Amino acid sequence: MAIQLSTDGAAFIAAWEGFIDHCYDDSKGHCTIGVGHLVHVGPTTEHDRNAWKTITHAHALALLQADAHRTGIEPISTSITVKLTQAQVDALMSLCFNCGGGAVAAGHDVARAVNSKPKQWNPVEMKAWRERVSAAIMEWSHPSELERRRKSEAFLFSNGKYTKATGNPFANA
């Protein structure tokens, strides 16, 4: 199964992560830039600021694609055995980008739920499958600030719609 993060998926993740064009300390105190790209473990230094200066949004998205490969593509390719739509891949990529590849590791709830996809298309069974996957994604909604993001990822997985803030209570702003 060839897995990749789409342009829409990258934009979806970027909207949740936000964009900062210079080095800053993330919530764990590590030097970060762009759309959550870890420059290195540890606080931002003057050397980091001088070396990176500022980056464009396009550069940040390129870094996001590379980071997504490491955090999502490899774990999804290894753990997920069923065919998925691009929107479903993007939803899982967003989860992995935010929580790490372990979120879809073999034997864990998300991987088990995704891999329980019915072999034959049946509307009742497909609805139940999407609900199982959504419930498994929601297990990653701690701390509570992540609930809207998880709901948005579950919505993307289930409906194939990249959420917009207008009229959507769990979309990214």
Describe it.
The chain has 173 residues and is mainly alpha-helical. The chain has a single domain (7-159), classed as Lysozyme (Orthogonal Bundle), CATH 1.10.530. The chain has helices at residues 7-17, 46-52, 57-79, 86-99, 109-115, 123-138, 147-159; strands spanning 20-25, 31-34, 37-40. A hairpin with a 2-residue loop joins strand 2 (31-34) and strand 3 (37-40). Helix 4 packs antiparallel against helix 7 (147-159), helix 5 packs antiparallel against helix 6 (123-138) and helix 6 runs antiparallel to helix 7 (147-159). The longest helix is centred in the middle third of the chain and has 23 residues, at 57-79.
Name the features:
173 residues, mainly alpha, Lysozyme, 3-stranded antiparallel beta sheet, 7 helices, 53% helix
Summarize the helices and strands and which ones pair or pack.
Elements: H1 7-17, E1 20-25, E2 31-34, E3 37-40, H2 46-52, H3 57-79, H4 86-99, H5 109-115, H6 123-138, H7 147-159
Antiparallel strand pairs: 1-2, 2-3
What is the helical fraction, as a range of percent?
A: 40-55%
Poorly predicted spans: none
Mean pLDDT: 92
Which descriptor suits the 3D outline? elongated
Strand percentage lies at 5-15%
Strand order of the largest sheet: 1-2-3
> H/E element string?
HEEEHHHHHH
- Number of strand elements: 3
CATH fold name, please? Lysozyme
Q: What kind of sheet is the major sheet?
A: 3 strands, antiparallel
Structural class: mainly alpha
Structural domain tally = 1
Please give the radius of gyration in angstroms: 17 Å
Named CATH architecture:
Orthogonal Bundle
The CATH class assignment is Mainly Alpha
Supply the number of helical segments: 7
Question: What is the CA-CA span between the terminal residues?
Answer: 32 Å
